[in-house]
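Data availability (excerpt). The following record was deposited with the supplementary files.
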Amino acid sequence: MTLAEARELEWAFIEIAEQPDVRVVVVGANGSDFCSGAADDLDPLRSGVNPAAALAAIACPVIVAAHGRTHSVGLEIALAADIRIADDEATFAMAQVDHDRLPCWGGTQRLPRLAGPSMAALMLLAAVEIDASQAHQCGMVQRVVGDVGLAVDEIATQLEALAPLALAATKQALSTGPEMPMRQALEFEGDLNHLLQTTADRAEGLRAFFDKRPARFEGR
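Predicted structure:
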């Protein structure tokens, strides 16, 4: 990933976050790899760009389609998503220590939360590369498939049919709740539920249930 590409990604994610009609975001890549690492002109610490933070700020569900090498800054971006689907040839690494650096787009914090502290220590300290099966076993990716594009399309289609405000609230609870004491997190969940009760989508969901038809959610 070059500096220009990192800036373009950050701008794209910021723009998407400002569009309330977007229901699902899918992040993928052309070529043989999702992202093999940072180019020579990309110093994540000094450049001032952080596409991972911009991606994490998107309210709707974000899916990453990982194939080939998902390494370094590429893995940091993938970790900022909600759902990670990998093909069976994907590999994952965060070996910035080889270059006398630390991850600085959230890698040292998101990786142990998803993969566990033991696996994160191996990857961050010993620069260990893991395959898709290991990534699935430790919880870094939710699914490993032969055709990642098809699997991502299926999940995206399912998400598009759901209530967008409820999805955004669920995502907020998932990301914010673990940082709170349990009692406060439960109150936060209740507050989000109360807010959803006043929405037009909630009324549409009830009508659709009683009419025995699919709901037509509009995100309001």
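Summary of structural features: DSSP finds eleven helices and seven strands in the chain.
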